[in-house]
Amino acid sequence: MIVDFTASTLIVAGLAFYTAGTVGLLRFPDQRSRVHALSKADNLGLGLVLAGAALAWGDPRVALTAAVVWLLALASATVSARVVAEDAAAEEDPACPR
After folding, report:
1. Over 13-81, what HEC string results?
2. Quick one: which of 22, 30, 48, 49 is 20 to 30 A from 57 by CA?
3. Rounded CA gap, 64 and 15, in Å?
């Protein structure tokens, strides 16, 4: 019962962070702050959802797979956020190196 409650709490918290990232995407004024909201809030939300799912399943292989998926998502979000931020900087200042 405690494991199910903890797993549910992690999943709900992850969904709350996903919602916060989506609100940031829709409400923030410039491209850099939107990317920041998505890359931070969504990655934390994904980590919490995957931790809750791994805890609910109770299988170490599922937990390991979830950890690998989360690490790959962190890496890809970091690279894509950097590319989008550099593109936004180049649009604002043409002298900015790419």
Report:
1. HHHHHHHHHHHHHHHCCCHHHHHHHHHHHHHHHHHHHHHHHHHHHCCHHHHHHHHHHHHHHHHHHHHHH
2. 22
3. 21
